[in-house]
């Protein structure tokens, strides 16, 4: 039984899902996921390949049957009112869903006409979107001649023809080069500025960090964590003060000050004249630095680093974000991932044991 | 990149009502839009049209000259028999392509977008089927044209031939439901092609398309006489050669209706399950 209050509440949510389950044979691809996406926010669903992100999105988009649980889009039940849901949704899939046999203009015209826009409106809206997505020059070219980035932009344009208030983006930048990825991010930010609510899936931690207001971490069909990027980061560990000294002989002095001022145990790396000091609060870094200046310690470089989302993921799920079996897509991962893993092995280790 | 349009123009979630059905007018519009898409595809990749262009040109001459002497004594007197037969055969081949192309289409990403659009569920199926009427039209007109070029003089005149072409188009559309069903439930295009050919050959050759059925052994003859393809070919012969709307035309229409009555609901149900 849903009360009137519940319905009102659900209308305020762009997406409300409880206990979503999707089975493929014995395999539970989505295994009881709850999700709430508020109006006007960018909600990121983060997880490695095969975590169930796309399956979940396809269930919410009426593309896959919901085996168990409930979902509603702006208060419209996905199972009971699929037609109403489709009218509120723009969906851009992992693989561009445009017609290879048509030109960009013809594609937009086709989808506009199908959604009930008049001939004049279809022509005007197609031209407007082609302009907006920098595709005017390529408008008459066959899609086969399009680059990956152009296809994605056309695909996104096709999702926006009727100005839907909610956009689903399924791995919007998978397989794109870094420059095109940056352009896509800008496009998505523009979209949000116009008032759209965005639900996006990604396997790139920096993408979720860059775009999403809130993030749900999905692993093996389950939600393992949810929050803002900062909340997720602080839930697993503190910041670290990283110092490089001119003289490695002074490293023990830093360790001694860290113990005295903060009660923390510093990690020394004499070969590179580095020391890492764990911080409970970021501003504690100042106390350490002041103490070192009083003692005339020459510092070559200072960084204060929050834990990366890679570490968050590792800590939450106990395994890596990139499945070694999925070669080509794994290579596109953020460059920082490898660095932070190797440099902070000891810290990661401590996070794991503290769990 | 310019800025996005203002929020005020966005679809208001509150304004969207719960009606799940698409009106008839909208449905027809969507079907025609998707038929337009299918014809664009035909124009862009002409190889999909070979079966209704090159094939009638080659087969008509070939069958007429190879079988003509043996079956009817000479080519000229075989033409009234073989030309309608070939129309039946060519249209049936075109139907196979309908199923195979539907399968290919359903495997492309664009079908995902059709699924998520608020359109009539049947439109992505019906659109290409409407466009294929054009293929059946081309196939039957070309076959008549080649026949006339090598000496066929249809006794039914312009009116009879026009009637025959219309009947061929209707028959193509009806028989296409069989192969559409294969296209929907098939795993991949190659599999659909395989099973379709397996069905198409008996339908073509266990009919009166190339030879009179009198000499066939009993069971084969019994099948050949109720085979909807035979019914259609007989009706085309009556229309084109005699200009007469005979009871055989009525039987052909009934045959088409039976095929539709059996295969259309099965196809639509299978399709809706995938949409």
Compute the number of strand runs of chain B: 0
Oligomer: heterodimer
Largest interface by residue count? A-B, 52 and 44 residues
Major β-sheet annotation of chain A: 6 strands, mixed
CATH topology of the largest domain in chain A: Rossmann fold
Shape of chain A: elongated
Average per-residue pLDDT of chain B, rounded, comes to 86
Over the alpha carbons, how many angstroms does the gyration radius of chain B reach? 21 Å
H/E series of chain A: HEEEHEEHEHHHEHEHEEHEHEEHEHHHH
Fraction in helix of chain A: 40-55%
Question: What sequence of helices (H) and strands (E) makes up the elements of chain B?
Answer: HHHHHHHHHH
The overall number of domains of chain B is 1
Q: Whole-number average pLDDT of chain A?
A: 82
Characterise this structure.
The complex is a heterodimer of chains A (355) and B (275). With 355 residues, chain A is α/β, with parallel strands linked by helices. Chain A folds into two domains: 230 residues, Rossmann fold; 68 residues, 2-Layer Sandwich (Alpha-Beta Plaits). Chain A is built from 15 helices and 14 strands. In chain A, β9 and β10 form a beta hairpin. Chain B has one domain. The two termini of chain B are 35 Å apart. Chains A and B meet through α3, α4, α5 and α7 of A and α1 and α4 of B.
Question: Can I get a quick summary?
Answer:
The complex is a heterodimer of chains A (355) and B (275). Chain A has 15 helices and 14 strands. With 355 residues, chain A is an alpha/beta fold.
SSE topology sketch:
The complex is a heterodimer of chains A (355) and B (275).
Chain A: H1 4-12, E1 13-24, E2 27-38, E3 42-46, H2 53-60, E4 68-73, E5 76-77, H3 82-88, E6 89-92, H4 104-114, H5 119-132, H6 148-159, E7 166-170, H7 178-193, E8 197-202, H8 205-211, E9 214-219, E10 222-227, H9 229-236, E11 239-245, H10 251-262, E12 267-269, E13 274-279, H11 284-294, E14 299-305, H12 309-317, H13 327-330, H14 335-343, H15 345-354
Helix pairs in contact in A: 4-5, 9-12, 10-11
Chain B: H1 24-44, H2 54-72, H3 75-107, H4 109-116, H5 123-149, H6 157-185, H7 189-205, H8 218-226, H9 228-242, H10 247-274
Helix pairs in contact in B: 1-5, 2-3, 2-5, 3-5, 3-6, 3-7, 3-9, 5-6, 6-7, 6-9, 6-10, 9-10
């Amino acid at each position: 039984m849903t009360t009137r209050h519940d319905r009102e509440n659900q209308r305020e949510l762009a997406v409300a899902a409880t206990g979503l389950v999707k089975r493929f044979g014995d395999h539970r691809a989505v295994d009881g996921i709850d999700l709430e996406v508020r109006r006007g926010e960018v909600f990121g669903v983060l997880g490695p390949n095969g975590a169930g992100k796309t399956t979940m999105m396809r269930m919410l988009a009426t593309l896959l049957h919901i085996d168990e649980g409930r979902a509603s889009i702006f208060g419209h039940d996905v199972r009971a009112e699929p037609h109403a849901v489709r009218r509120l949704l723009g969906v851009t899939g992992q693989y561009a869903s445009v017609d290879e046999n048509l030109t960009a203009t013809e594609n937009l015209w086709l989808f506009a006409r199908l959604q009930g826009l008049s001939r004049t409106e279809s022509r005007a809206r197609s031209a407007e979107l082609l302009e907006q997505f920098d595709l005017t020059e390529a408008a008459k070219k066959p899609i086969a001649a399009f680059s990956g980035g152009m296809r994605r932009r056309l695909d996104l344009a096709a999702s926006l023809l009727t100005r839907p208030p909610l956009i689903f983006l399924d791995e919007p930048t998978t397989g794109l080069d870094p420059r095109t990825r940056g352009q896509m991010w800008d496009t998505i930010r523009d979209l949000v500025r116009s008032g759209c609510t965005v639900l996006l899936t990604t396997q790139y931690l920096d993408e979720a960090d860059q775009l999403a207001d809130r993030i749900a971490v999905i692993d093996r069909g389950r939600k393992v964590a949810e929050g803002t990027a900062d909340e997720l980061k602080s839930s697993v560990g503190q910041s670290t003060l990283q110092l490089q000294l001119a003289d490695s002989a002074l490293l023990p002095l830093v360790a001694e000050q860290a113990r005295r001022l903060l009660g923390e145990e510093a990690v020394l790396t004499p070969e590179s004249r580095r020391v890492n000091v764990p911080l409970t609060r970021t501003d504690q870094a100042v106390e350490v630095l002041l103490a070192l200046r009083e003692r005339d310690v020459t510092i070559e470089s200072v960084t204060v680093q929050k834990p990366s989302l890679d570490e968050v993921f590792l800590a939450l799920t106990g395994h890596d974000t990139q499945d070694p079996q999925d070669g080509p897509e794994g290579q596109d991962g953020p460059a920082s991932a490898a660095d932070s893993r190797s440099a902070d092995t000891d810290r990661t280790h401590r996070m794991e044991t503290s769990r | 990149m310019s800025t996005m349009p203002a929020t005020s123009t966005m679809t208001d979630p509150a304004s969207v009502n719960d009606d799940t059905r698409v009106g008839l007018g909208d449905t027809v519009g969507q079907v025609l839009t998707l038929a337009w898409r299918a014809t664009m595809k035909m124009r862009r990749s002409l190889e999909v049209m070979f079966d209704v262009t090159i094939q009638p040109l080659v087969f008509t001459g070939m069958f007429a000259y190879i079988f003509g002497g043996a079956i009817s004594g000479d080519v000229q007197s075989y033409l009234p028999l073989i030309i309608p037969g070939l129309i039946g055969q060519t249209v049936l081949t075109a139907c196979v392509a309908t199923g195979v192309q539907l399968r290919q289409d359903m495997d492309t990403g664009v079908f995902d977008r059709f699924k998520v659009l608020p359109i009539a569920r049947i439109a992505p199926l019906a659109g290409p089927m409407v466009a294929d009427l054009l293929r059946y039209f081309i196939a039957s007109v070309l076959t008549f044209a080649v026949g006339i070029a090598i000496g066929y003089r249809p006794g039914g005149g312009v009116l009879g031939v026009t009637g025959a072409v219309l009947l061929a188009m209707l028959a193509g559309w009806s028989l296409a439901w069989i192969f559409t069903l294969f296209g929907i439930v098939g795993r991949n295009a190659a599999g659909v092609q395989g099973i379709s050919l397996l069905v198409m050959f008996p339908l073509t050759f266990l009919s009166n398309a190339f030879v009179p059925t009198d000499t066939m052994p009993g069971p084969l003859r019994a099948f050949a006489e109720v085979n909807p393809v035979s019914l259609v070919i007989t009706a085309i012969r009556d229309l084109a050669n005699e200009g007469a709307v005979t009871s055989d035309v009525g039987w052909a229409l009934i045959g088409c209706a039976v095929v539709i009555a059996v295969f259309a609901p099965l196809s639509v149900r299978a399709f809706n399950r995938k949409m």
